[in-house]
Write a structure and sequence with these properties.
single chain, 64 residues, mainly alpha, 0% strand
């Protein structure tokens, strides 16, 4: 009986994760300029990295 309880908790966690990520995709689809669902929108180091070509190459590697 304990195995089913753990499986149900994991299933609920996966469903919540999928729901949150789906909402994130919908937010960015309908409002592309939004910073709410956009990690790059609040990633200030992106603009700062452009001053140093090596650092920008490294940051773009990490992001992509």
């Amino acid at each position: 009986m304990g195995e089913w309880k753990i499986l149900n908790i994991i299933s609920i966690g996966i469903i919540i994760f999928i729901l949150l990520e789906s909402l994130n995709v919908l937010t960015l689809y309908f409002n592309p300029g939004s910073q709410m669902g956009n990690g790059l929108g609040v990633f200030n180091a992106w603009e700062k990295s452009k001053a140093d070509p090596e650092m920008h190459q490294f940051v773009s590697y990490l992001v992509n």
